[in-house]
Amino acid sequence: MIFSLSLKKEVIKQIACFLLALISVFTVHGQKAITLQERVNPTLSLSVSELPDRILFQDMRTKAIVNELLVPGRGVGGLLTFSPDGQFLVASGNDGQTTIYALSRDIIRQLARLPFKTKLAAFSPVKKECVFVHSVKTFNARMTKYDTNTWKAIATRNIASDINAVGISYDGKLIGFTNNRLIQLLDYESLTKVNVNWEKEKQRLLIFHPNKQEIASVTAENNIQIRDFQDTLIREIKTGSSKITWLGYDRVGENIVSVDVDGRLSIWNPVQKNKEQELSNIFTPPGFTKDNNILIKKEQGWTTVPIDIEASQEIHDRLSSSKNHEGKRLKFLPQPIIGFKREAGFIVGAGATMIWYPKTGHASRFSQPTIFAPIVSYGFNGKQLAVGAYMEAYYKEKWYFTNNFLFTNNAKNYFFGIGRESNDRHKTAYVSDNFVLEGSVSRILSDQFFVGINYKLRKDNELDFEEKPTSNFHGGQGGWLFGIGPTLRMDKRNDVLFPTKGSRLEINYYWFNQEIISDYQYQELKFDYRKFIPVDWLVQGDVLAFQGMFNATWGGEAPFYQLPYITADRAFRGVWRNLYIAEQVFSVQAEYRSYFSSADRRFGYAIFAGLGDGAKNFFKDYKASIKAFYGVGFRQQLIPRYRLYTRVDFGLTSKGDFGAFAGTGVAF
């Protein structure tokens, strides 16, 4: 059979169209495997698609190939963008060129070829001009304005090389772009800086509202933030989405549309901060018709969906507390240490928190990060120097390791007596050098349940008292301590640095025996339960936290500086460390954690209250002397993205004791 030349061309076009539709989007087990770019031009009912060496123009309705342009060396994954009026296409790829095409239903012609590779482009809504971000190098790139009548450069300037989005305000007065944690606004005419906004999180996918002075962008947690030109955060939509790859307003600015890597197209109401529609298997950026319907690409082609009615598919609220840490798994957080303790006075120092996030597809669903945190600090009251490190590690073989090492030189403390004999009028200062090494090795039996062995090794020099204490005590000679025993832990917290929901239970038993290193012989039990409840009472994100703690020693005599306590870093925070010590203690406390403004979470506060008591034996001849503690605290985020806080707490006990504590991290 003999085909005519025109028939052969038609067959080839149909085959190319079929292959393009077949390979444009592939999904494997819910993950996008291959995506070739395709963009839609609703004004002319055209779509443009890329292949490694050509660009294909198709009729949006019939899928017939309208034109095919050979672009040798272009590759895939470059820039393809239409002007808002549909009259121009900007294309740029690995050939190092930027080509502008004039478009109509009948003719597609090349207007200009610019000698650089373009990363981003934005058309002015009020002028016949286009802004290019191009010629990206290691440390900088170029931003250039072009006249779209002549395609000649008007103005240019250097710009950051890590820019990831650019846009132009609806009135054409400002250019906005994002890079790292910055949203920068430039004067459109002069390309000079108008405002530089430092953000709490990395921002990307910046878009301008079509008729308001507002900007929307996406954070690293895939939340959509909307702010005005003065950098006031107006609202935040917690999407619960996977990584959002595309963001846009509809034509009138009533809705925001997002597309994520899992192929979910979501339509959000910015005022109500809720999801109005959701469509699945949408990997191509949509378009909008003149009557504000949305154009989506399905397997059968481009389809119009009314934006003002619910989609036929069920809307799933996939809010997730876990964060998407794919990509860079190691996070390094430098951490200044500024604190206050009654014994050491003001403390300054430096540290770092290194966080390794688990790989996707981890053998266990348990997704807590591995943490290593070295520190060095200096306390001015007594010239106390402390050097240490903390490590918390998870392994895919379901093992959990934790170790804490601390060496303290000139560790200053006070002795007040033990149990009922304790009184701040008996305060006697003492100094010693010591080091502590404690940790555990646990087996992860489930995603949240751990069983293992814990240990504690401690060495104290002989204690140097300023004067002889008036109360009897045991342990003034210092010496070695070594204890070992079983540990049990259940951890259902949603975050190890700043938990907002879930719970944590830890039970530790230690056996100290003089036959094994230790100079002291006794047994110790620690019980610690914590519960975190999101309440959203005053602002979204506030939390109510509870803790119950029981700590007991028996079967021997522990050195007084290792007796259980309820002060210092525990429930009676900031009160003298040894003021309320006894063979056995318990405490319960509650804390309300909130922010002064939901729009700015760098600053917050806490209101807390608790009670506790100590005794030689709660189960024999116990006479209650319960003490209460209450106070307020202030919080400021050191590293907002990771919710690491500095805190200052002030409180009083029912006995009139005053407590002041400053440090980093949550109280419990």
Describe the structure.
It holds the Pfam family Omp85. This protein has 668 residues and is mainly β. Helices cover 3% and strands 54% of the residues. The protein folds into two domains: 5-305, YVTN repeat-like/Quinoprotein amine dehydrogenase (Methylamine Dehydrogenase, Chain H); 330-664, Beta Barrel (Porin), CATH 2.40.160. It has a 17-stranded antiparallel beta sheet that branches. A four-stranded antiparallel beta sheet has the order 3-4-5-6, with helices on one face. Strand 4 (46-51) and strand 5 form a beta hairpin. The longest helix has 19 residues, at 5-23. The chain is elongated, with a radius of gyration of 32 Å. The model is unreliable at 1-9, 20-34 and 309-327 (pLDDT under 50).
CATH superfamily of the largest domain: membrane protein fhac: a member of the omp85/tpsb transporter family
Q: Can you identify the CATH class of the largest domain?
A: Mainly Beta
Total count of strands:
48
Which second-level CATH architecture of the largest domain applies?
Beta Barrel
Strand fraction band? over 45%
Which of globular, elongated, flat, extended, rod-shaped describes the shape? elongated
What composes the largest sheet? 17 strands, antiparallel
Low-pLDDT parts are 1-9, 20-34, 309-327
Query: Which class best fits the helix and strand makeup?
Result: mainly beta
Treating each run of at least 4 consecutive H or I residues as one helix, how many helices? 1
What gap, in angstroms, lies between the N and C termini? 82 Å
Provide the number of structural domains: 2
Helix content: under 10%
| Rg from Cα | 32 Å
The CATH topology label of the largest domain is Porin
Mean pLDDT: 84
Domain Bacterial surface antigen (D15): 391-612
Subcellular location: Membrane
Pfam families: Omp85 (PF01103)
InterPro entries: Bac_surfAg_D15, WD40/YVTN_repeat-like_dom_sf
